[in-house]
Amino acid sequence: MQQTNKLILFRTVVIIMVLMLAAACSSSMNNGPDTSHSTTTGDTATGDTATESAEGSNTKEDRSQSKGEASEPATESERTEGGDRRYTSQQAEVKAGQLTAGEWDDLAAWQRFGNLLNSKEGDDNLSYWSFQAFNRLEVVVTSGGRAVSDAIVKLSDNQRQLVWEAHTNTDGKAYLFAGLYNKGQNDKQSNYRVDVQAGQYKKSLSQISLPEQGTLKVDLGGEAELANQVDIMFVVDTTGSMEDELRYLEAELKDVIGRVGQQHGQQLDIRLSANFYKDKSDDYTVKSFPFTKDVDEVVRQLAAEKADGGGDYPEAVDAALRDAVHSHDWSEQARARLLFLVLDAPPHYNTKVVNEIQELIQTAAADGIRIIPVASSGVDVQTEYLLRFMAVATGGTYLFLTDDSGIGGDHLEPAAGEYEVKPLNDLLVEMINRFVQP
Question: Any transmembrane segments, and where (predicted)?
């Protein structure tokens, strides 16, 4: 009887062990990879790894390590054969208000900008783009105590040679720079001259020291007129690397154009221009359209474009800016002339291109054209600095897409302070309103 009980106990223990083993095997199988969906799982894992890597690249240490390199943040495993990146968001419904962006205005945070340029990263990028120093003079022009818009302000040296020229914004502010480029200019003098003109009103001041002067206030007297003309140009990179965001950008820009027309069309004389560029080996280098008041026509031009071509990282930014600045009939008198430069890559890097970019920046400032970059996914540290230099020198501001939307590749976190993330279309409308409202 005792043997029978032992046998029953033994069999019971064996059965329990078998059941436990079976349960463990079942759990292991359920937690393991589903081989029937191995391709999807592999793509997801690669995407997660790339995201973590890109987030790490936003640290100051990694930003400094990337100086001097023209590399895109996406890894090889994220690319198709043609070099274009794959994104799961491509299947999302395209509509306005999906892209997210931030703004950083270096002109409004001038001390912080100076500290940035004094850092190793800032100094390296000044040298990289052959900029020497941002010795700034802020000139505030009023007439009878009211801000004067589109006044022409010139800075001359002690030999009466023109150093810099700019136009005031609707706050009456113009920004002049001495010794901006690394061309042997004497950047610090105590005998600069400033000439201001708005219509028939003129005023000159001398014995100006830079950068010690800081801000110069000039009242012209009388009553200066406020122009109603507004020129808004969009210059958009349409190479293959922009494919991830171009469809969304088109939706955002269409929305912006429509909203600006509705808000200001009755009060302001708004002209629009859409321009597109690729690289010199593509089906076109620059495709530009003249300024027009026909909002629907500009929307059609945007809708007709597709992202392809390019290949290497740099693109024909110089050719696009050359066309934008020199080949369009910008208004002689205007409340605002805004050039939104939408891109994800720098110009080709050589002495000729860098020199031309500098000349185009100076010409844009002299013509009152404010460059407002919109940095997309793929912009690296060197490109960020060049775009911010453009914005500062022309009285614009720096816009950048962010990862918050989940659309496109990874976006470089700018070397800036705290900023507010907003829908891109709302931010663009806000920028236009800022520059056109007195």
Answer: 7-29
